[in-house]
Amino acid sequence: MTRDGHGEVGPSIEAVFREERGLLLAALVRRFGDLDLAEEVASEAIEAALVHWPSGGVPPKPGAWLMTTARRRAVDRLRRDRAYAARLAVLQVEADRAGPAPGADADGELPDERLQLFFTCAHPALPAEDRVALTLRCLAGLTTPEVARAFLVPPATMAKRIVRAKKKIREARIPFRVPGADELPERLPGVLQVIYSIFTEGYAASSGPALLRTELAEEAIRLARILRRLLPGEREVAGLLGLMLLIHARREARVGPDGELVLLDDQDRARWDRTMIEEGQGLAVAALTGGPAGLYGVQAAIAALHDEAADVATTDWPQIVALYDVLLRLAPSPVVAVNRAAAVAMRDGAEAGLALLDELAGEQRLRGYHPYATARADLLHRLGRFGEAAAAYREALASAGTEPEQAHLRRRLSECEQARGEGH
């Protein structure tokens, strides 16, 4: 993290901002009822911290410092703006009725009200795509291009969605609260999707020098644990948490000594986190017990089959393909179809997998989705069709976001070009 005029931000300060930003934003929304205002003054408080903390040090209660600064900025702004004068008076009356205004508690820590904000952003009055986009931007702190990448749309399109969602929340007066039991079935899937999108950006970063953004993956897991405590009877919450743990357990083996990408086939499975795998397996069982399988429970089962296998060759590929069949019925999408095709290639051979991938060639949503081009390239490579594989690797390279992915694809492309030159 950097800031013009202030040089590099120290790692301890950056860690504080990562931890406190979501807490701060949620507390400000609860206090002032305006997401735009909350974002603006939260940013101003962080700007103030960037000025004062490098020389004076991070305060003992950084969340309280940020909240006090942001709250003062918000009140000053509301008082200066006549259009907000009436709102400030109403907010003060509501605050008096509710008791002490949200902010730092008796120990100087911000209360964790992020789940309320998650449910606000996942309100059914918002289009599904806007719910996830807004929450990723506001609570996870992802940039608009990173959110756009997650949805395979241009950044300008995503920026419009985020603005539209904020306007809808403001105009519809969507409440800041966790929904009641009668609303939960409709609201929960949106929150789960948000958390999983955060995890996905953390485990497979969309851009930048590193393959992983571990802090995002761990933040998603932490939020899922909070949700699991709040809703212990919801099997899909268990499924999501189990899925993320089963995937995150491989993180150390997925990156080489120099930050390079290590594929599943080549990973040292002794480096996988067995404690995390055991917890994830238990959650997967809980997610699949007591009713029809859900989206995250099925994905957790797939991840568990990968994690329990000694190597790629002994993985239960027939069962994985069968689970992808279930997943396609629950949530049909070209991305799921790509993953199923890769599993079919392991079960039935590269020709069978490639045929399924070629059937998806006309899917608009796969344009610019480099895992699709990479999967085709890898199967063509396995089949010895090096010219076609090289073309597919070039296509994948054009849309790969992180430097480790780009380096991996360049190596594979070089192998294909060398094999062609040798007349294979």
Automatic annotation (TrEMBL):
Residues 187-285 form the DUF6596 domain. The keyword Transcription applies. Residues 121-169 form the RNA polymerase sigma factor 70 region 4 type domain. Keywords: Sigma factor, Transcription, Transcription regulation. Residues 17-82 form the RNA polymerase sigma-70 region domain. Signal peptide: none annotated. The keyword Transcription regulation applies. Belongs to the sigma-70 factor family. ECF subfamily. This is RNA polymerase sigma factor. It comes from Nonomuraea antimicrobica.
